[in-house]
């Protein structure tokens, strides 16, 4: 049952990387949590850690968001827990270019990076609009500003939707922040099967930093959050430089492992 005395956040992709860090920092801020991902053992391990350290209620939902059943269960949890903050974070990327990867893999990515956050945003609005309060935090990527295959296209879609959601529903008390991180040290590149050795050290951010900046931008009611000055400069350049140049630079971090 939801705990009405605490704000409740639902975080997707909470077993690793940015999602796990969102869970940790939100628990430290006194949020009750609903954590969603596929690996139940890891979810339970994190829940135990957060309950012990911060004394907040933590609910665990094992769900594959790329499946209709898993996505429906997560949307039900948004309603059941009367979520105050939705963090649409779960994601992955293919280590192959569009045209080389099987279409079934592309469909999976579309389901995970587009359909899942779209359904969850819809479920969140249904809870938040009648209440007149709530916040959606969509984790996109600075890749949204670059031409880099379907991954950047999905993140551009999420960015565009999020910016519109904030304009449309801010007056009703529902805010949306779109997070656009650069390279972050997580399990993302390893899971993708690529070697990011060609990414210079200065381009890497820590998950702790990205999440702290994102939550501070949520507090400030910012529609778009780009953690670190260096990525704010790069994002501005990416939006104005010739596409061919941006595409070449954006190939970094995509060296397929032998
Ligand atoms: N790392 C970067 O450089 C970077 C940069 C920009 C944006 N991002 C974005 O940041 C978000 C988080 O990525 P990350 O870097 O933290 O990656 P990560 O360390 O690989 O974590 C990904 C998380 O997503 C979950 N997940 C993956 N597929 C799922 C599915 N089908 N259903 C439910 N959960 C699923 C994973 O949990 P399970 O395996 O347990 O399901 C895991 O908790 C993603 O949206 C990514 O696109 C990352």
Q: Could you characterize what this model shows?
A:
It is a single chain. The protein is an alpha/beta fold and 258 residues long. It has a single domain (8-256), classed as NAD(P)-binding Rossmann-like Domain (Rossmann fold, 3-Layer(aba) Sandwich). Helix content is 49%, strand content 16%. A seven-stranded parallel β-sheet has the order 3-2-1-4-5-6-10, sandwiched between helices. The chain is globular and about 50 Å long. 43% of the residues are buried. The model has no long low-confidence stretch (mean pLDDT 95).
Distinctive features:
258 residues, alpha/beta, Rossmann fold, 7-stranded parallel beta sheet, two-stranded parallel ribbon, 9 helices, binds NADP nicotinamide-adenine-dinucleotide phosphate
